[in-house]
Structure of TonB C-terminal domain-containing protein:
Amino acid sequence: MKEKLEEERRKKEEERRRLEEEKRKKAEAERQRQEQERLAQQRREEAERQRREEERRRALEEQVKREMAALEAQRAQQEALARAEAQRLAAIASLRDEYIFKIREKVRRNIVMPPEVPHNAEAVFEVVLLPSGEVLSARLVKPSGVPAYDSAVERAIKKAEPLPLPPDPALLPQFRTLTLKFRPAE
């Protein structure tokens, strides 16, 4: 009987060890499963973080592209405006030169040339005009050295009234005061 009891005790001990081993294996399997689950969760979180980072990077790139395009469009618009303004100013300058030429020619046709005026004589007048083209004043700024020529030019300025002016009223302020040079040789 002792042997039987010993056998039973040994079987119980083996059963207990087997159960403990099973329990240990189950615990190890559970620990490994939890570890794998934790690693899988970390991988998912890392993948999500990388996806969000990539989206943020793409959004920033798109924003930079939009801002660069807007800046380029603004620069192009400013250049176009500057070109248009330069063309406008050039057209005004050309028109101004054209009308100053017309004024000088009209005055020149009315100059009664005194005798013996040197060809290099030059009289400079400051002429103030009204919007109608009438001469408000003609002041000798630089005499030619020949008083008879200076007087002849001054009379011709007044005789040429009304002086030709551009039809655009916006340009009239540029013709309010003119400095005109006259030479007998021209």
